[in-house]
């Protein structure tokens, strides 16, 4: 910033008010590259949200990024009021020739602030989508576990009858009864498997 000012001595002739403008302009010009870097990282995180399974690192990075953008917002927001006052007030500090430069910096701050707000909204949306997808994946896992539990419940129910030790079991008198029970169990399990498969529970 100092080298840039020294290369334009006609601007330095405007006095300390131009030096103040140069400092504020240097600060504000460094906001947009930071926001651009965050935007590129957010695009990568959005891709990771939709392609990766439940990833704690993505959720943590989204949260950290939101906190960093809030810090950047708290740094940029006060400059709007400061520059607004410098443009409209303090004639003893700011020369009239320099006021258009401050207006330009004020416009840059407004654009940076709008970009930060837009990024924060995108981050909120990304976090909501990420948490929703995690819930959907967990529900899919629960559905699959419930489907397999239903399949295991059929043979468990049928075979548990043989632990009752009663005398009138069919296969004690009929040689074909025991294979029939096994066949019925297999058929019921197969039918239940097909039903659950079509319902996308397996």
Brief summary of the model shown:
Helices cover 80% and strands 0% of the residues. By secondary structure, it is an all-alpha fold.
Structural notes for this entry:
The chain is rod-shaped and about 115 Å long. Helix 5 (56-88) runs antiparallel to helix 6 (99-160) and helix 6 (99-160) packs antiparallel against helix 7. The two termini are 65 Å apart. The protein has 202 residues and is an all-alpha fold. The model has no long low-confidence stretch (mean pLDDT 81). It folds into two domains: 2-137, Magnesium transport protein CorA, transmembrane region (Methane Monooxygenase Hydroxylase, Chain G, domain 1), CATH 1.20.58.340; 143-198, Methane Monooxygenase Hydroxylase, Chain G, domain 1, CATH 1.20.58. It has helices at 2-6, 9-12, 16-29, 31-51, 56-88, 99-160, 177-198.
